[in-house]
Amino acid sequence: MKRHLVFGALAASAAAIVTGSSAHAARSVCPTKNRPNELVLAGGSGQTAQLGKPFAENFSVMLANTNGCPLTGNLAGVTINFDAPGSGASGIFAGSGSREAYVGTDSQGVATAPPFTANYTAGSYTVDAHSDYGTVELSLSNTAAGLAAAISAGTGTPQEATVNSRYAQPLQARVTDANGNPVQGAAVTFSTVPGPTGAGASFLGGGPATAMTDSDGVATSLPLLANGTPGKFDAIATTDGVSSVATFSLDNHAATEALAAGDAPPQLATVDTAYGRPLTARLLDASGQPVEGAAVTFTLGTAAGGGGGSAVDAAGAGAAFPGGSNQATVLTDQDGQATSPVFVANGAPGDFTATATAAGATAVGYRLQNLPARLRASTPTRRATVGARYRGPLVARVTDMHGRPIDGAAVTFSVGRSAGGASASFPDGTTQATVSTGAAGRAVAPALEANTTAGSFNVVAAMSGGTPIRFTLDNRAGTPTSVVVGAATDQSLPVGTMLPLRLAVTVTDANGNPVSGAVVVFSAPTSGPGGSFTRFSHNHGHHLRVVRVEADGKGVAVAPPFTANGQTGGYAVTVRSGGVRAAFALVNTAA
After folding, report:
1. Same-domain check for residues 166 and 262
2. Disulfide check for 455: which of 160, 319, 422, 510 has CB 3.0–4.6 Å away?
3. How far, in Å, CA of 279 to CA of 562, rounded?
4. What proportion of the chain, given as a percentage, has pLDDT over 70?
């Protein structure tokens, strides 16, 4: 057997080494007793198996001695533990049904593991063979190559055929493995699923059709014959090992049909609002009888007559069915009537057309018009303290061209940011919110909260088909929390002279914003060394011990000129704004 052949080859190789030359033999004479002291690989390493499939060769290891000489003594019964990984790519030993197997050596010192089957995780790994004489690693790999993992529809979908006639193309399905490569020799079963009207088809020979994939992974069905019922239905293709199916869309249609539009007058709707009526069409056969269960496709924005040319105007006027598509296919009822889903005008004003088509019938058209909308702001200017919520939401009113309110129009409010960083956000933390108008045409934005930066910025309200409007918002600084004195502090001036630098302070709030308009009170001492401020009015100077100054847009308040009195010594000119105080340290010196 194979393991004995391997052992014989190793023994012959060892004998060749021993007898290779007389000089070498003199130095390498094998001992009379030669017990094993190592474990070596005998076979099974370097294999690859498909997921869930057994490896072709069993793993085997053998006892040996590092001197290369044949072993002596009883070699049977030494326990070898074959151990595969506990997670990831690995496998299962037959017999134990687990990732481990215990095997005893035979009389030749060879241990062969039970058959080993790859698990369903692809990758490379090692199986370790443990013994009292050491450990041997066997390199293995699990692969998904060549195993069916996906099936998809190829040619043959969608297709139409007249009732009781053969479909032009057979169905083709492609089978691929996990790497996307074709799988050859996979059995694919094709079957049909009757539609709601009873429309269906059969494969020549009857029943499901099974075909094998070729070298490109493609399986081709038998020819397909439509039954006598008009309508849509599906065919599916399946293959073992793949839970998904490939689906083919098929349609049986009557030999001769006539389609008539149910809506002759043009319809009107304001941009971004729903049209008042769905589109309807009636399908009759050659004898004038209604055709039930036939597929009618309504297309928005296609020229009447079925030519396929676009009828959307230069501004892009159009409409869409639920889900955003401009096409919807419905089946006719017992009266032969098909009714489209509700559709919504897009954001572009203008005229366009829609069509209804059915297999074997001439297309019919419908005239539609999107009317423009108008936006107006209720209160264009708002103010709030930084970090606080704006009182009252922003409101935009949407009307049609006649001033009538539009219900259900989508208006998007977008918050801007000033160059300095002033802005605001909606309750969810975003700077954009889309709301729909109510019956009064009013779109009410969520509440806005000012950020911590003072300044003015804009909020734009916009909707498709209307001119955007702007709201001006102003984040105002909070109450003063800091008054910083300017460079004039720690100055000396001779008695009776004017301070070269005017006293100035900067007032900011808790977020560092300059507090514009903050009232700052400068106060000189009531007695002793000090001075007075000179404020001019009607060309006359007034000497004041206390003055009040309003901070400018940068939060800076500058006091009138200050003149020392006649007493020498140091003193402080105090500054107060709200509950915050500061002081300038000054000294009057002798003239």
Report:
1. no
2. 422
3. 85
4. 92
